[in-house]
Amino acid sequence: MLNLGILLTQGKPDVEKDYLEAYKWLDLARFYTQTSGDMTLKWRARGELDKLSGVMTKAQIEEGKKRGNEWDRSHRKK
């Protein structure tokens, strides 16, 4: 999740930048690392999300959160 979010933030020759999808994946990474003992991973996810939030509008951030919530609901174990 973290790596995909970073990739979508940066873009590459074969991957178009997509801040909304990047936000979705970085927010999911932030959520799923909350209970991790790996502090480096936890803070990296939060740091990348903070950086991205700084270049997005409030409406874009809300849409990114919405996409993340929809993904989480559809993939959560029942």
Please explain how this structure is put together.
The model has no long low-confidence stretch (mean pLDDT 95). The chain is mostly helical and 78 residues long. It is globular, with a radius of gyration of 12 Å. It has one domain. The chain has four helices and no strands. Helix content is 72%, strand content 0%.
Low-confidence runs: none
Distance between the termini: 21 Å
Number of domains: 1
Order of helices and strands: HHHH
Percentage of residues in DSSP E strands: under 5%
- Please estimate the helix content: over 70%
Largest sheet: none
Q: What value does the Rg take, in angstroms?
A: 12 Å
Broad structural category = mainly alpha
Average pLDDT, all residues: 95
Shape: globular
Indicate the multimeric state. Answer: single chain
Number of helices: 4
Strands, total number: 0
Quickly describe the structure.
The chain has helices at 2-10, 19-32, 39-53, 58-75. With 78 residues, the protein is mostly helical. α2 (19-32) packs across α4.
